[in-house]
Amino acid sequence: MIKEYYRPETIEEALELLARETPLTRPMAGGTELNSPSNDQFDVVDLQSLGLDKIELKGSNIKIGAMATLQDLLSVSDLPSALSEAIHHEATYNLRQSATAAGTLVSATGRSAFATALLALDAQLVMMPNEEKLALGELLPLRSELLKGKLITEILIPGNVKLAYQYVSRSPADLPIVCVAVAAWSSGRTRIVLGGYGTAPIMVVDGKDENDVLSAVGHAYMQAEDEWASAEYRVEIAKTLTKRCLYLVK
Ligand SMILES: Cc1cc2nc3c(=O)[nH]c(=O)nc-3n(C[C@H](O)[C@H](O)[C@H](O)COP(=O)(O)OP(=O)(O)OC[C@H]3O[C@@H](n4cnc5c(N)ncnc54)[C@H](O)[C@@H]3O)c2cc1C
Predict the structure, then answer these.
(1) What is the mean pLDDT of the chain?
(2) Alpha helix (H) ranges present in 42-177?
(3) In the CATH hierarchy, which fold is given to the domain comprising 2-46?
(4) Does the beta carbon of 102 lie inside 6 Å of ligand 1?
(5) What is the distance between the alpha carbons of residues 72 and 218, in angstroms, rounded to a whole number?
(6) pLDDT tens-digit readout, 173-194
(7) Domain-wise residue ranges, the chain
(8) Torsion angles phi and psi, residue 71, rounded to 5
(9) Quick check: pTM over 0.85?
């Protein structure tokens, strides 16, 4: 439950509030997760007056303001079509108007299509204070520790990389039971990420697309069993989706 609400006008003011030891104070973006019922009590720092919602092309990168909504992202010209598909898959139209890029990554589970695609693209986060840069892959397993007193202000993704996204779910709009995102750089670098299970998507391959990638994919989901699917099923589907993605980025 939210106890106190603040809406600072500057990043410095926001960071000062977030640096307090007590009461527990959390950044609020679209608020879709923070406003959901909870027994926790905390103050929130609303980020909407900080001007963090811009999306710009920076060289060959796309620079996404932390507060840009998922719907804002869909209006970027030349957004890879597979990323657009993952964003549509992440949330419904209404939710996409409020849910922000950073809020979605911070609250992502393994079933997040958006986090799976951004992890494949090796998204980099810019965090304040100190404009520290951090790879999404480093943040995901250690979110609460690494974000203490900090703010994500920007997310950088490469604009010149081929991306494929494939998924299987119970119905077309449901969250994935298994999803795969593959990013391919012109240098030959290939990143393969699996989603659909657990607390965060998993990066399986970052390097050359070699013969044994399918066994690496199978190995990564060997224990991926939950109420939605058996591990055996996930392994088979993940291999098939990976083959399709690799074909699509060729
Ligand atoms: C009706 C409904 C249905 C939903 N369905 C799904 C679903 O199917 N699958 C799913 O995965 N999620 C679902 N969600 C959750 C929601 O989609 C995500 O939580 C949302 O994308 C979070 O974005 P937000 O901008 O609203 O974040 P917020 O709720 O504002 O914040 C989420 C977290 O991110 C942190 N945060 C936000 N911005 C920053 C920043 N700049 N720097 C550091 N930390 C930050 C916050 O402190 C908080 O911990 C649903 C929510 C609703 C209301």
Answers:
(1) 95
(2) 70-74, 81-90, 93-98, 101-106, 113-120, 136-139, 143-146
(3) 3.30.43
(4) yes
(5) 35
(6) 899 999 999 999 999 999 999 9
(7) 2-46, 55-158, 162-249
(8) -70, -40
(9) yes
